[in-house]
Specification:
It comes from Pseudaestuariivita atlantica. The protein has 114 residues and is an all-beta fold. It has one domain: Metal Binding Protein, Guanine Nucleotide Exchange Factor, Chain A. It contains no helices and ten strands. It has strands spanning 5-9, 14-18, 21-26, 30-34, 40-44, 53-62, 66-74, 79-86, 100-103, 109-113. A seven-stranded antiparallel beta sheet has the order 1-4-5-9-8-7-6, with no helix packed on it. A three-stranded antiparallel beta sheet has the order 3-2-10, with no helix packed on it. Strand 7 (66-74) and strand 8 form a beta hairpin. The radius of gyration is 13 Å and the shape is globular. The model has no long low-confidence stretch (mean pLDDT 95).
């Protein structure tokens, strides 16, 4: 693993909400810290309502984590394009984030520790 990436199990219960819906709640969230960036919470896929997430063609590459695949969040009132991402085949050393999805927090997506 890159020396500037740290992955730990985040204590407590975490929830992600969008468009008035709870997309997921978990006691198994991972917190990834990379350099000076704010920590990112990764939710296990098994704890997410995947029906709200639609895969997109968008992808990015991180030299430390690998290729990220993106999802749009589909709510009753809107589609939040590329609002979540996942590393389907993460780089060596960050394999813990496989089968997890992270979300961009903002005006329409809330990530909360309960």
């Amino acid at each position: 693993m890159s020396s500037h990436i740290r992955i730990v199990t985040s204590p407590g219960t975490w929830a992600v909400r969008a468009g008035g819906a709870v997309l997921g709640e978990t006691k198994s969230a991972l917190e990834l810290t990379e350099g000076d960036y704010p920590p990112v919470i990764y939710f296990p896929r098994a704890d997410l309502a995947m029906a709200f997430l639609e895969p997109t063609d968008h992808s990015t590459v991180c030299p430390h984590k690998g290729e990220a695949s993106y999802f749009s969040i589909v709510t009753k009132s809107q589609t939040l394009k590329n609002a979540a991402w996942s590393y389907e085949d993460p780089a060596e050393g960050v394999e813990e984030i496989r089968d997890h999805i992270a979300f961009y927090p903002g005006d329409y997506v809330a990530i909360e520790q309960l």
